[in-house]
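Limitations

Structures in this collection are predictions, not experimental determinations, and the ligand pose is part of the prediction. Treat each record accordingly. The example that follows, with manganese (II) ion as the small molecule, is included so readers can see exactly what is and is not provided: the inputs are given verbatim, and the output is the predicted complex.
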Amino acid sequence: MPTRLLIIEDDSASRALVCYLLEAAGYATLEAEDGGTGLHLALHAQPDLIICDLQMPVMNGYEVARALREHPDWHRVPLIAVTAFSMAGDRETALSAGFDEHITKPITPETFVTQIEAFLPHPLQARHSPGH
Ligand code: MN
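Predicted complex:
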């Protein structure tokens, strides 16, 4: 089974780009367009890593991160913020909410997958998994 990444992002163009890059690298993607749906999918679909925007309807990314980190099964899943928030202090705010990394938009397509893979255990990286 391919490694599955959940992308929680309300901007459809950003979501499509991230999914395209990850699928081209050999990953399966799940998508949610708001934080509430994203949290539900995270808890029920068991993704291997979660990419999450911060500014979203229903539940923002900080609320998603805090809810996941409080959940006994999900307090360790790799959780990456991908956000337009790029002011001084925004990175610290994201990390203190429970994110493992904070990547600012616009993403760099040439390096994005490598940035994300740094947070996947080796056997889950597409280039190392059987069949790739
Ligand atoms: Mn947004």
